Amino acid sequence: MQLAATRIITDDVDALVAFYETATGITPERLHPMFAELRTPSGTLAIASSATVPLLGENVAEDRANRSVTLDFLVDDVDETCEALQEVVDVFVNQPTDMPWGNRSLLARDPDGNLINFFTPISKTARTRFADEVRG
Q: Going from the N-terminus, what domains does the chain have, and what CATH number goes with each?
């Protein structure tokens, strides 16, 4: 089994796609006006319109209601990423912070309020854990 994608349901696909394209530098693939994907070597972030929810089942998902999932993005330098995101992010939850598990992390919210963690491994153990991703 393989996790294929993480999907965000939104009322404004264009705005969320534009946000993630700017925040990550990843060019999205628009498969349909109501659906886009941002693909990375380790996973895909899918963005779908709330208009697709009835196709999945009545009221199975709701936009802007997430308070339990965090999207993690591995970056080369979290401090540089923080600086680059100043004009894109409206809500920073914290500033770059060294975490006890060996990452330096920046938490922010996307336009729909979803929590995003941009992080850089800084301890030897964390760098080893993410060595393949860091080398790309």
A: 1-50 (3.30.720.120), 68-136 (3.10.180.10)
